[in-house]
């Protein structure tokens, strides 16, 4: 139960060396990748994507179309994997669940007054339970950044723990909204709070705030996951979201993931990209490798 959870002393979260983390992150972009490794990396990245539609104008038809794309990424290229998940608002979970039935693609739902998080806890919990009761396999919550920035770390911890309990069997992704946290030290502290409170994933961003995911911020979070694993033996998954639209950048992220956490995290159970536009760029790169020429973007569905 939440009441028995031990809250660590988060003042002990380590200081992040800004120069060091940015230099290490930049080195991952300089790795030479051979063609066979590049092909395997692109296929893996494709299978790690959470295709997302989070707009006020979302309709049943738009969600069904996105679900179709998740399963049929490019019918002209047989043997492609599916994406990992479709991410929608709670009101669209039931539509997505039915459209994806039998495909193995997960249904993720944002919740907790996404993207602001500005709602009372009981409203957030009802939001989560509505999504889960409609079939969500995963829940993406946002932390209360205002409370965090005021130093109310126990409030943030307790809220995450309460949401985790409300998730039941669904996996919980905790969105830090790193663009609003500003410093690497705060990103590290928020990562630690989320993991100790019960997060299954830690996620950079909602995609609604700039900057979203960056390699240095993601590296800070990956190192937090590594340290947490060494201390507890528990694996936590990672999801950079927003701003990753090109295949080359996705490959850099996979190099960083492999060299920081190792092979055990190199699958979509433990790593995701929140980057819908990335799928089409990867498809274009794969078709270039297969045919020798680039296809026009018009050959690929937008959603």
Largest sheet features:
7 strands, parallel
CATH class: Alpha Beta
Radius of gyration computed on alpha carbons: 19 Å
> What helical percentage do the residues reach?
40-55%
Q: Beta-sheet strand percentage?
A: 5-15%
The sequence of SSEs as H and E is: HHEHEHEHEHHEHHEHEHH
The CATH homologous superfamily: Aldolase class I
Task: Label the structural class.
Answer: alpha/beta
Q: Into how many domains do the coordinates divide?
A: 1
CATH T-level fold name: TIM Barrel
Mean pLDDT score: 93
The outline comes out as globular
Strand order of the main beta sheet, please? 1-2-3-4-5-6-7
Tally of helical runs: 12
CATH architecture: Alpha-Beta Barrel
Can you describe what's shown?
- The chain has a single domain (2-299), classed as TIM Barrel, CATH 3.20.20.70.
- The model has no long low-confidence stretch (mean pLDDT 93).
- The chain has twelve helices and seven strands.
- The chain is 47% helix and 9% strand.
- It has helices at residues 18-27, 35-47, 60-71, 93-99, 121-133, 145-149, 153-167, 178-181, 184-197, 215-232, 247-261, 276-291; strands at residues 50-52, 85-88, 106-110, 138-142, 171-175, 201-203, 237-239.
- The N and C termini lie far apart (41 Å).
- β2 (85-88), α4 (93-99) and β3 (106-110) form a beta-alpha-beta unit.
- The chain has 303 residues and is α/β, with parallel strands linked by helices.
- α5 runs parallel beside α7 (153-167).
- Strands 1-2-3-4-5-6-7 form a seven-stranded parallel β-sheet.
């Amino acid at each position: 139960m939440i009441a028995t959870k031990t809250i660590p002393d988060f003042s002990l979260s380590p200081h992040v060396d800004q120069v060091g983390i940015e230099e290490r992150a930049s080195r991952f972009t300089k790795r030479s990748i051979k063609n066979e490794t590049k092909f395997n990396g692109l296929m893996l990245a494709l299978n790690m994507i959470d295709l997302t539609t989070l707009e006020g104008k979302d309709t049943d038809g738009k969600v069904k179309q996105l679900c179709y794309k998740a399963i049929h990424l490019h019918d002209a290229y047989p043997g492609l994997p599916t994406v990992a998940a479709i991410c929608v608002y709670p009101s669209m979970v039931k539509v997505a669940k039915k459209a994806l039935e039998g495909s193995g693609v997960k249904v993720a739902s944002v919740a907790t007054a996404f993207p602001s998080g500005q709602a009372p806890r009981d409203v957030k919990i009802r939001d989560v339970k509505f999504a889960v009761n409609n079939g969500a396999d995963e829940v993406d919550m946002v932390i209360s950044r205002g409370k965090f920035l005021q130093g109310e770390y126990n409030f943030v911890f307790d809220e995450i723990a309460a949401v985790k309990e409300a998730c039941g069997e669904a996996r919980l992704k905790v969105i830090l909204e790193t663009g609003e946290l500003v410093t690497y030290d705060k990103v590290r502290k928020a990562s630690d709070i989320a993991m100790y409170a019960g997060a299954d994933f830690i996620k950079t961003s909602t995609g609604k705030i700039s900057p979203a995911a960056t390699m240095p911020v993601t590296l800070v979070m990956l190192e937090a996951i590594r340290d947490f694993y060494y201390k507890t033996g528990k694996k936590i998954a990672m999801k950079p979201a927003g701003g990753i639209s090109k295949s080359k950048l996705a490959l850099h992220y996979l190099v960083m993931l492999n060299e920081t956490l190792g092979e055990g995290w190199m699958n979509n159970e433990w790593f995701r990209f929140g980057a819908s536009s990335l799928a089409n760029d990867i498809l274009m790169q794969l078709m270039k490798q297969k045919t020798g020429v680039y296809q026009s973007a018009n050959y690929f569905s937008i959603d």
